[in-house]
Structure formats: C-alpha cells, structure tokens
Specification:
By secondary structure, the chain is mostly helical. The protein has one domain (2-85): ACP-like (Non-ribosomal Peptide Synthetase Peptidyl Carrier Protein, Chain A), CATH 1.10.1200. The protein has helices at residues 2-13, 36-50, 57-62, 70-85. Helix 1 (2-13) packs antiparallel against helix 2 (36-50) and helix 1 (2-13) packs across helix 4 (70-85). It is globular and about 35 Å long. 14% of the residues are buried.
Length: 86
C-alpha cells in the first residue's frame, strides 16, 4: 500500500505547486490548488499507472466513494487494484 501512496503523491505533485504532506491528505483538491481539469488528467494518469478504470463521478457516488481529497483517491485506487487482482 505504501508504494501505491507514494506513486499517487508523485502523480498529484505534478499538478500542484502546493507541497503534499500527510496532513494534506484530508484537504480538498481546491486547497491543494488542483482544479477540475488537472483532476481529469490525474485520473488518466492513475488509470495508466495502475492499469485500472476509474468510473465517472455519478458511478462513484452510487458506490459510496467520494472524490474530494487525496485519501479518497488512495481508497479508490486500492479498491480498484484489489478488485482487479481477484
């Protein structure tokens, strides 16, 4: 899991000048200066890096996932990678 988190932080760091720390995992993307266009690019990067397909926002909401902070991304990626491995 730690390796996934490191990879996710590396990807996110490409799209913000705000340093990402453990404390920022709970902060909103707005607080981290990640706009909606950057978020779309982040999703593409995550899909490519982890060989997963991230559902659209309405599907995520229906499945009980939020997509508002780094912890949400970590949880979602971990869930999708685990599901893929089964």
């Amino acid at each position: 899991m730690e390796n996934k988190i490191s990879t996710i932080v590396d990807i996110l760091s490409e799209y913000t000048s705000t340093p990402i720390t453990e404390q920022s995992f709970q902060e909103s993307f707005d607080t981290l200066n990640i706009d909606s266009l950057a978020l779309v690019e982040i999703i593409f990067d995550l899909e490519e890096q982890f060989d997963i397909s991230i559902p659209n926002e309405s599907e995520l909401t229906a499945k009980g996932f939020n997509f508002t902070c780094i912890n949400d991304i970590v949880d979602l990626v971990e869930s999708l990678v685990t599901k893929k491995a089964l």
